[in-house]
């Protein structure tokens, strides 16, 4: 005759008395929320999102040569795999002068990847790259790039990350540069007439 095993119950909370319970003293009892009656004649305030003045229909007037291109970590890695020179390939794609920009977050991500990605780190430290300082905490580059592009519409984002592309497509007037068939391509780049060129 062995002892009967009791099954332990997981995630069982202690039962707590409600603050509205009759057994609690009157002064400690939680008060029922009082609903305010809405005045029909009062002016209703609602916040309308302010669209940037640089967007003329679909055309972003802040975009122009020399193009400033925000580079993501995986874009540098895929460029090395495809044996592409970053700055030269950007110029071949856009037919204009390009300034690749790299944020502190992206630099931190490449440094964290370790010895295997030392070539990517050497490319990122190229003097032709413009270094952008980050003021926020952490080194999550995707959030940083999305926030920067939302505030300033003067950048093209260079990335191969599907999730980041999906987030950036929701922001109007921001073109995306990506790699396919061993060359750089641009997505959503408006031409001189304001119609998107694909």
Automatic annotation (TrEMBL):
<keyword id="KW-0539">Nucleus</keyword>
<keyword id="KW-0698">rRNA processing</keyword>
<comment type="similarity">
    <text>Belongs to the UTP23/FCF1 family. FCF1 subfamily.</text>
</comment>
<dbReference type="GO" id="GO:0032040">
    <property type="term" value="C:small-subunit processome"/>
</dbReference>
<dbReference type="InterPro" id="IPR037503">
    <property type="entry name" value="Fcf1_PIN"/>
</dbReference>
<comment type="function">
    <text>Part of the small subunit (SSU) processome, first precursor of the small eukaryotic ribosomal subunit. During the assembly of the SSU processome in the nucleolus, many ribosome biogenesis factors, an RNA chaperone and ribosomal proteins associate with the nascent pre-rRNA and work in concert to generate RNA folding, modifications, rearrangements and cleavage as well as targeted degradation of pre-ribosomal RNA by the RNA exosome.</text>
</comment>
<keyword id="KW-0690">Ribosome biogenesis</keyword>
<comment type="subunit">
    <text>Part of the small subunit (SSU) processome, composed of more than 70 proteins and the RNA chaperone small nucleolar RNA (snoRNA) U3.</text>
</comment>
<dbReference type="InterPro" id="IPR029060">
    <property type="entry name" value="PIN-like_dom_sf"/>
</dbReference>
<dbReference type="InterPro" id="IPR006984">
    <property type="entry name" value="Fcf1/UTP23"/>
</dbReference>
<feature type="region of interest" description="Disordered">
    <location>
        <begin position="24"/>
        <end position="43"/>
    </location>
</feature>
<dbReference type="GO" id="GO:0006364">
    <property type="term" value="P:rRNA processing"/>
</dbReference>
<feature type="domain" description="PIN">
    <location>
        <begin position="67"/>
        <end position="166"/>
    </location>
</feature>
<dbReference type="InterPro" id="IPR002716">
    <property type="entry name" value="PIN_dom"/>
</dbReference>
<dbReference type="Pfam" id="PF04900">
    <property type="entry name" value="Fcf1"/>
</dbReference>
<dbReference type="GO" id="GO:0042274">
    <property type="term" value="P:ribosomal small subunit biogenesis"/>
</dbReference>
<protein>
    <recommendedName>
        <fullName>rRNA-processing protein FCF1 homolog</fullName>
    </recommendedName>
</protein>
């Amino acid at each position: 005759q062995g002892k009967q095993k009791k099954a332990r119950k997981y995630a069982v909370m202690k039962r707590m008395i409600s603050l509205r319970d009759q057994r609690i003293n009157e002064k400690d009892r939680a008060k029922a929320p009082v609903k305010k009656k809405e005045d029909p004649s009062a002016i209703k305030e609602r916040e309308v999102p302010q669209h940037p003045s640089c967007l003329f229909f679909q055309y972003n007037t802040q975009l122009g040569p020399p193009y400033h291109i925000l580079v993501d970590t995986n874009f540098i890695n895929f460029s090395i795999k495809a044996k592409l020179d970053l700055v030269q390939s950007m110029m071949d794609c856009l037919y204009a002068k390009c300034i690749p920009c790299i944020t502190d977050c992206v630099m931190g991500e490449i440094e964290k990847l370790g010895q295997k990605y030392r070539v990517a780190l050497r490319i990122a430290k190229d003097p032709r790259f413009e270094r952008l300082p980050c003021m926020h905490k952490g080194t999550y580059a995707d959030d940083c790039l999305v926030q920067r592009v939302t505030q300033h519409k003067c950048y093209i984002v260079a990335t191969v990350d599907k999730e980041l592309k999906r987030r950036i497509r929701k922001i109007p007037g921001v073109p995306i540069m990506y790699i396919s068939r061993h060359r750089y391509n641009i997505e959503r780049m408006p031409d001189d007439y304001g119609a998107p060129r694909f």
